[in-house]
Design goal:
By secondary structure, the chain is α+β, with helices and mostly antiparallel strands. It has helices at about 1-20, 30-40, 95-105, and strands at about 20-25, 45-55, 60-65, 70-75, 80-85, 110-115, 120-125, 130-135, 140-144.
Length: about 140
């Protein structure tokens, strides 16, 4: 019995070590939603690298453009993060309530980054402020 438990522990350990990896992939290997997002909002950008990260319980994709812009997608191809180095986040992907808040409170600022997860959104502005919103689009934190 001890040998079986030992073997199972070893097998599980090897799975964990192997599970966390990044591998380069081609555009056509991204989920269809991610491909559509890129062709809609970043069609003029040249892709430098696309990677797929696979863990034991997750899969995600990173797209880096030659300009330095970066996108992250979940396993379904939904965006989770957009980072813009040379421009600003496309307004069409930002929830209207966040756009209104930024326009009302920081009219000169541009949204350079946006992240979305199950808890809400986080944006980074050109004036160096980071603002967190919950899923009801209420501001929950502001950092500088």
């Amino acid at each position: 019995m001890k040998k079986i438990v030992f073997l199972l522990v070893c097998l599980f350990s090897m799975t964990i070590v192997k599970a966390d990896n990044d591998k380069p992939i081609e555009m056509n290997q991204l989920p269809a939603k991610a491909q559509a997002f890129i062709t809609t909002y970043f069609k003029d950008q040249k892709v430098a690298l696309i990677t797929q990260e696979t863990g034991l319980f997750y899969k995600s994709y990173d797209v880096v453009f030659a300009s330095g812009e970066k996108l992250e997608f979940d396993k379904s191809g939904d965006w989770t993060e957009v980072k813009c180095k040379t421009g600003e986040v496309p307004a069409a992907i930002i929830p209207e309530a966040i756009l209104k808040y930024v326009k009302a409170n920081y009219p000169e600022a541009k949204i350079l980054e946006i992240e979305h997860d199950s808890e809400g959104y986080e944006i980074k502005l050109s004036n160096r402020l980071e603002i967190k919103f919950n899923n009801k689009f209420q501001v929950v934190d502001i950092d500088d």
